[in-house]
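hey so i finally got around to running the thing on that chain from the lab meeting. sorry it took forever, my laptop kept dying and i had to restart like 3 times. anyway pasting the input first so we r on the same page abt which one it is
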Amino acid sequence: MEKLKKKCSLVYVNTTGRRLSEEELIEALRDADAAIAGTEVYSKKVLFSAKNLRAVSRVGVGLDAIDMAAAAERDIRILNTPEAPAQAVAEHTLALILSCLRHIPNYNEQIRRGTTPVLRGSLLAGKTAGIIGLGRIGTRVATILDAIGCTVLYYDPYVTHAVPDSWVRTEELSTLYSLSDIITLHMPPKAGNKPVLDRKAFSACKKDVIVINTARGSLIDEDELIRSLEEGVVAGAGLDVVGEPVSGRLLALPQVILTPHVASDTVESRYRMEMEAVDNILRFVEEGIS
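ok and heres what got predicted. didnt touch it at all, straight out
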């Protein structure tokens, strides 16, 4: 906050501890030239009501809550903070993988109930991990899994950065599905929110695959995931993002581990995201660009 005050006049600060409604957001942005956005929805109405608004810096990566077409029409620059949460999401991905393989939530529950564990876990080392999306987060996940002793496969037609020779690029998703013991998603939503893991994808998967999603809920067809879990094609799933409200059928499956969209939510990453969002605005103010 102090960093912003040195360069900007703060016309509104949200101290409510909750997400602002559309009307509250319109009022908050009435005199603003720039905004640091949390989880509020920046609809077309909001963006066109904010007559002075020139830039929005989102604390986080996803831009789903911002009407990008309306922003472009108004010539409002939309910025985000892709670097700050990457390590936290990668670590959360690892936690979900290990929780699935070693049945950690089940063991915790059994001990508290005083029952004898009946499940036996599996090693992560030696597994083949298929990573869909090799951006900032996917690359970190691949690096961690490689160090543990996994064979790393990846699918990403848009990779331009250097990749270790030991990581295997797959030209077709079907190849990755058929070879992977673990499939983890690290990509933005597809056009029209079409799922990547649908009936066809699950039918191509290796038996007893573990599915991890810390990206977007729309990437998985939940009905097909549930069917695949019930039929034993998928051995377990670790999901930080799901459809809302959460399906009761998912909640009923003990081999599904759910977290409430908190993969990026650590003390350190939150601070870094906020600072990156502030720096975006300051660069925009000082240079007119980011």
